[in-house]
Known about the structure:
heterodimer, A: about 110 residues, 4-stranded antiparallel beta sheet, about 50% strand, B: about 120 residues, mainly beta
Amino acid sequence: EIVMTQSPATLSVSPGERATLSCRASQSVTNNLAWYQQKPGQAPRLLIYGASARAADIPARFSGSGSGTEFTLTISSLQSEDFAVYYCQQYNNWPGTFGQGTKVEIK
Amino acid sequence: QVQLVQSGAEVKKPGSSVKVSCKASGGTFSTYTFSWVRQAPGQGLEWMGGIIPILGTTNYAQKVQGRVTITADESTSTAYMELNSLRSEDTAVYYCARGDSNDYFLFNYWGQGTLVTVSS
């Protein structure tokens, strides 16, 4: 199965700053890459699919890029509600696999 | 409006079984796929298996193959996940998640989660 590796494990960012999260696949997943946000005690929420398309009702400050094996999630100006854990997931190959997550915390 | 509503928390003894339900509303139940994803305390997300109700086909992760059974009842728009021979390491929050026929593993809707605690 495809292994998804996220970096860094923890990202400390001040409100209003930009956050850049990385995700690498062990083999090409073309652009079948999703990003999810999870807050404590809540289910994951789909943010990005197709590597760069925002899901419904997701603010424009969230953007995704990349293809093949290297992907990036950028949060342009962090709001208080954005501090959470973010997971990438490939859905190109069976089974879909998740990265281990990046925690975005308040600096 | 799509909603996935799961059954409540469970406490089980090692070696026993648990069955978790996920009732869907909004959309045509049988045309979507339903997967179960679990999250152990403080850990990441792990896909366990899924079902395509319209085809009746199921797929399971190798790690739980043989212990897990996923079913769907189209008459009540409910998916079920049953896990047998429970171990302490099965303690986790179990989520159901909806995919679609084109992207089995792209989960745009999730249930609220069900905590299953395995303890003697």
